Amino acid sequence: MSIRIAHISDTHLGYARYSRLDPLTNRNQREMDVAAAYERTVDEILARDVDMVIHSGDVFDTIRPATHVVIHFIKQTARITGERIPYLGIAGNHETPRLRATTASLEYANFAGAYFACGFEPESEFVEAGGAGVGLSLVPHGAVLDRELVVMPRNDADINILVTHGTVPGLTIKGHELGEVDLPGHVLSGGFDYIALGHYHFFHEHKKNAFYAGATERFGFGEVDSKPGFAIVEFDRSGGGPTGIEHVEIEARAMVDLPKIKASNMSPNDLTDAIRDSSEKADIGDAIVRQKVSDAPVGVAGGVDRAVLRDIKRRCLDFSLEVSEAGAADAPGEEVDDSFGSLEEEFKSFVAARRERGDLQKDFADDFLARGVEYLKQAGEAGR
Ligand SMILES: [Mn+2]
To answer: What is the CA radius of gyration of the chain?
Structure first.
């Protein structure tokens, strides 16, 4: 007989992006998408007869998610615990406060009968699930930075699982190894039957017994090729590594990276036509869309017909045009926006996010925001 564990990660509840609002609730559409992805994940878990659920971090996108975000999390989480399925997890980097005195929002999980380690120390739990004793070493992101960290499997458990959040040594993304490693190798090598990893948003086998579950939605064009979802991991009740692992895909908002336009020798009219053609060849309805343009002659991007851009933008959830001029390095491209308002929105959300994460002090953030908006206005007027 086997036991089945749902390993989910990186739900990023409360993530908001772009200017589109949901017509019914008036809330940010991407925030609604991300909430719906968690709900669908819970649906899939409940349809699959699992014995336990593990979340490996970045439950919330921010340290202080809005009340409606927390309520949604509690309600959906309670659908799992209400079926008497144990649900445990850890905090990731996104929701870990900078200051140890700050209360972690994941404490709310207790109200839903789930348990999350969200402090700065590893925790060890023992849970009966599916007729087996499961030992869980919960290593929240706040504990990962401790270089002396040692976690041990439990002697009293049939199956030992380590749950943690960060970049493993040797993680290779698009052919190059990530330099920034925050999970020391000795933590990961300690005799666990399974290591449930969070942080990297792709479903990914690190070792035969160590997997990233991947995120439940996409959070940027770096993830355009990812398949959002979660993992179902099977174990033998008597112990040992996974006997099977299945990636369950979750439907997500379409994200479309249009083929790059090489604009050398193009006039503003040529580029306008090329952008229009490109958008018409792809199915961009309600999608998050990016069009990259390279080698544009100096000044040509500014002459692209704004009405055409606005029309494309109306057809999708968001359209970003990234232009790099001739001789310039490719990415990150210069972002050309068809409306001043959305650039201001981007800047405001940038500052708000930094402030939320504790990167900026309140007074400084307010001043920075006021000055930045003023400079953007001046730049916008000068350009018209
Ligand atoms: Mn994440």
So the answer is: 23
Asked if 297 contacts 264 with a C-beta cutoff of 8 angstroms, the reply is: yes
What is the value of pTM for the model shown?
A: 0.84
| pLDDT score at 336 | 38
* Positive or negative torsion for Cα 219, 225, 229, 233: negative
Distance 12 CA to ligand 1 centre (A): 7
Residues 177 and 48 in one domain: yes
Same domain, 280 and 146: no
Domain that holds residue 314: 255-338
> What is the per-residue pLDDT across 319-347, written as a single tens digit (0 to 9) for each?
999 999 987 765 443 343 333 334 455 55
Q: How far is the CA of 200 from the centre of ligand 1 (A)?
A: 6
228 CA to middle of ligand 1, Å?
Answer: 12
The pLDDT mean for the chain works out to: 88
Residues with Cβ within 5 Å of ion ligand 1? 10, 58
Contact 162, 196 (CB under 8 A): yes
Give residue-wise pLDDT tens across range 284-298: 999 999 999 999 999
Tally of domains in the chain: 3
Ranges of residues in the chain with a pLDDT under 50 are 331-343, 380-384
306-315 and 268-281 helices cross at what angle (nearest 10)?
A: 10
Phi, psi (5° rounding) for residue 20?
-65, 130
Sign of CA dihedral 40, 44, 47, 51: negative
Dist. CA 327 → ligand 1 center (Å): 34
Phi, psi at 3, each rounded to 5°: -110, 150
